[in-house]
Design brief:
The protein has 173 residues and is mainly alpha-helical. It is built from 10 helices and no strands. Helix 5 (66-79) crosses helix 10 (144-162), helix 7 packs across helix 8 and helix 8 packs across helix 9. The protein is globular and about 60 Å long. It starts with a helix and ends in an 11-residue tail after the last helix. Pfam families: Cytochrom_C. InterPro entries: Cyt_c-like_dom, Cyt_c-like_dom_sf. Residues 67-158 form the Cytochrome c domain.
């Protein structure tokens, strides 16, 4: 009699697994189809050393150039994308707008050694740590320039999300 009660469980689990695999594949395809930041800048009529993010950024931020965005794109994908996205929560928080939430003087030590900031009792660091189920972020041996490049890439992604689709529609499939 017990076999009959749980006979529906195996097909349901199989369907859920297939759906999960499909969702992961769709997400991967969408990431591959994102326009490169440098292509976005060129297609939107911006100068070679500026981006949409630079035009939309507050006046007190460092201007973003296409070389920094391209370098930040590669660094983000190899170091951050496993747990973060610019505009969506993954394992860790969405990073778009981080420069409005925290100054660069806070962001650099956080990226280099988040655990030290939490252990020191930094209020915002502890809040983020607790908010994301005490998930441990690895320490990164990135230079300040590399962290700034990642920031430039993130701000470009944020600007793309906010910009009218017509500014970069030609780059999309």
């Amino acid at each position: 009699m017990r076999k009959v009660e749980f006979a529906w469980l195996l097909p349901v689990c199989v369907v859920l697994i297939i759906c999960a695999i499909g969702a992961v594949l769709l997400a991967a395809v969408n990431r591959l189809q994102e326009p490169a930041p440098a292509e976005l800048a060129a297609a939107s009529g911006l100068s070679a050393d500026s981006t949409l993010a630079a035009q939309l950024a507050p006046a007190d931020t460092v201007p973003v150039d296409s070389k920094a965005v391209a370098a930040g794109d590669a660094l983000f994908k190899s170091n951050c994308a496993q747990c973060h996205a610019a505009n969506d929560v993954v394992v860790g928080p969405a990073l778009a707008g981080i420069s409005e939430r925290r100054p660069l003087s806070w962001i650099i030590p956080w990226v280099k050694n988040f655990g030290k900031m939490v252990a020191r009792g930094d209020e915002y660091a502890v809040k983020i740590f607790n908010q994301y189920q005490k998930q441990q972020m690895p320490s990164f041996q990135l230079s300040e320039a590399e962290i700034k490049d990642i920031g430039a890439y993130i701000e470009t992604q944020r600007a793309m999300a906010r910009a009218p689709r017509s500014q970069y529609a030609a780059l999309l499939p």
